[in-house]
Design brief:
By secondary structure, the protein is α/β, with parallel strands linked by helices. The protein is built from 14 helices and 13 strands.
Length: about 450
């Protein structure tokens, strides 16, 4: 299948100015010449664009611009053709059909990027960064994605693997030539210090990984409170959109309502939950159960209290339910007299209706998670869960090697754990990854990428 010429539409479906149909493979230019005119008036030079027309038999389909890229100086390291058609679902599908009917096959999800990886154009971290760039929701998350695309992650992993390989080589020499070095001296003067150095490098990156994951994935944020305290109004105010229905009727929000907001580089995945109360309404009961589940899964809780009314038993239950969660208490209806009857330290007074102190809430969230911590231009931040998992696995193996070394076990036992760490790090960049992992990873991509 790697020798096939593949084709797909690379632009999003819908009406737009242009659509791009992309081909990659040895037969790309030959297939194009079967329906693109004037294709043979002169040689098609690499990295040039040519104007022409697409025909099916003698029927004009579209006027297009075609880009041609000659291997190996292409994204996939294969011959590539990109046909820029007029935007529209039918035209792009028609041109794709012509590609397929003349010798190409449909590309699978992410197959263009997969070929770039398999042909050595990019490593696995760079491939994953392409997907991260597509899914970026903020400037910070985009900058984070470019760390992988620039090779910064690969360089870090390769340096760690180089240091471990030096350890493995030293052990191999000792095993092959036992008279070459004293085992105790080798272990304490070389193996333990060098393994400790690698361990510290990994720990330093893992300590910062939480910030990378916050930037990449956002913070799952539940807005909770009893009915009619202003939860839906808060959601609408934060996303600046009338997404949630707001009425004075209790139980209006019966299901989860979601939205996204970017605060200084942090994406909040906001979830407006149904007001938690006792009810006999079957549908509302389902919504309340979903709300309780949302609270359990939330990484941040915005607990809204109505400060114009005395604290109720429901308020107290919610305060207890969210006590151990990362939370911010919001005292809504600050434009009315305070009748809560008790103070709440660090709570944010607001009038959601008048949108007062929204900036205070946003600053509080930013300070709590990222203020002064993120310096992407200076530091490496891992954000991909697979990278973090594999780095933790490698750290575990290095800790095992250190423990074995400190207990004066034979060096070949130490080597097993160090080799295991070396191989695990290789999985991050794709040096030691199996086919199933590669297929699963690229299946997450969209068609045409």
């Amino acid at each position: 299948m790697q020798n096939d010429t593949i084709a797909a539409i690379s632009t999003a479906p819908g009406i737009g100015a242009i659509s791009i149909v992309r081909m990659s493979g040895e037969e790309a230019l030959k297939i194009l010449n079967k329906f693109f005119k004037p294709s043979n008036l002169r040689p098609f030079k690499s990295h040039t664009i040519r104007y022409g027309k697409i025909y099916e038999d003698d029927q004009l389909i579209d006027e297009v611009l075609v880009s041609f890229f000659k291997a190996p100086n292409t994204f996939t390291k294969e011959d590539m053709v990109e046909i820029n058609t007029h935007g529209g679902h039918y035209i792009a599908q028609k041109v794709l059909s012509l590609c397929l009917n003349n010798g190409a096959r449909p590309a699978e999800n992410g197959e263009f990027t997969e070929r770039a990886f398999l042909n050595g154009r990019i490593d696995l971290t760079e491939a994953e960064s392409v997907l991260d760039m597509i899914e970026s929701r903020s400037e910070l998350s985009l900058k984070l994605a470019t760390q992988g695309l620039s090779g910064k992650i690969r360089s870090f992993i390769e340096n760690l693997r180089h240091d471990l390989l030096q350890l493995i080589a030293q052990i191999e020499v000792n095993i092959d030539y036992p008279e070459y070095d004293d085992v105790a001296e080798l272990t304490h003067s070389f193996l333990i210090p060098q393994a400790t150095k690698v361990k510290q490098e990994i720990e330093k990156i893992l300590d910062k990984a939480v910030y990378g994951q916050i930037i990449r994935s956002g913070i799952k944020t539940a807005i909770v409170g009893r009915p009619n305290v202003g939860k839906s109004s808060l959601l609408n105010a934060l996303i600046n959109e009338e997404k949630a229905i707001v009425t004075e009727v209790q139980g209006t929000t019966r299901d989860i309502v979601e939205g996204f907001i970017n605060i200084g580089g942090i994406t909040l995945h906001l979830i407006d939950t149904a007001g938690i109360r006792e009810t006999s309404d079957f549908i509302e009961k389902i919504g309340i159960e979903k709300s309780k589940k949302a609270i359990q899964e939330a990484e941040l809780v915005l607990l809204v209290l109505d400060q114009s009314e005395p604290l109720t038993s429901m308020d107290k239950d919610l305060l207890a339910l969210t006590e151990k969660k990362e939370r911010i208490i919001i005292l809504n209806k600050d434009d009315l007299p305070n009748r809560l009857g008790q103070p709440f330290e660090d709570a944010i007074p607001m009038s959601v209706l008048k949108k007062t102190n929204l900036d205070v809430l946003e600053k509080s969230i930013h300070t709590r998670y990222l203020d002064g911590m993120i310096k992407i231009d200076q530091n490496l931040y891992l954000s991909n869960p697979r990278h973090v998992q594999k780095l933790n696995e490698a750290l575990t193996k290095i800790n095992q090697a250190l423990e074995t070394a400190q207990q004066a076990f034979p060096v070949d036992m130490i080597e097993m754990d160090i080799k295991g760490a070396w191989e695990t790090l290789g999985e991050i960049i794709g040096e030691t990854s199996d086919t199933a992992l590669i297929d699963a990873l690229f299946s997450q991509f969209c068609l045409g990428k």
